[in-house]
Amino acid sequence: MSAICRLLPRISAAGPDLMALDEAILHTALKSGQATLRFYEWAEPTISLGYFQNQAERLEHPLLKSLPYVRRHTGGAAIIHHHELTYALALPAGSPWHTSESWLCRFHHAAQKALRNWEVTTVKPVVCGDEKKLGPFLCFLHQTPGDLVTHGAKIAGSAQRRPHGATLQHGSILLAQSEHTPELPGLRELTGTDILPGELASAILDVLAGETGWAFEPGELSGEELADAAQIRETKYASPEWNDKR
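^ that's the sequence the OP posted. Answer follows.
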């Protein structure tokens, strides 16, 4: 029998709501062994700060300082969520959810393969030894092993949290350049290809289903999860004590 991973509906929402939902599905993976995948978009251009970043750094960027911001539960550098597709994958510990290959590489490989549906074949992963740091603040100026790049620019990156062997991994695929970050071209500018978020999500899902053998079954958040997310939102991601803690 195939392992079953719940697939949640694709939504658009504000940063605190999105981050709270990601943490709530991680709690579910830890408590009940339910694996969950979801794709989403951001209701307005928003900065997500890496857990360890100083929020005051955003004020040094004239095009960023007026944007709403939220601090992620995961590390890494700041992402400006605008013309992109974001995903979150919450997995329980152990088999069949984990293999010897990192999920950072596995998910990016699926995205790379999915992009071939649009004849985008120039996207490659960064390999060890080819790391680059082209700026101090923005995640997409940091090219680390496993990230996806094309024509010298990063177009996909992810971050993880792994409590007690479970995994929350979320990441972004840059579909087009934002006016807030003109230094970051997206797939549209780099490859001349316009890709809709929902179409890319479906293509990635097809690849993942084929490569994992899992059944991705559409589902909804439970009442317990919604209550958990609401509490997390108010006590963490909508709170200055959390977002401005550094």
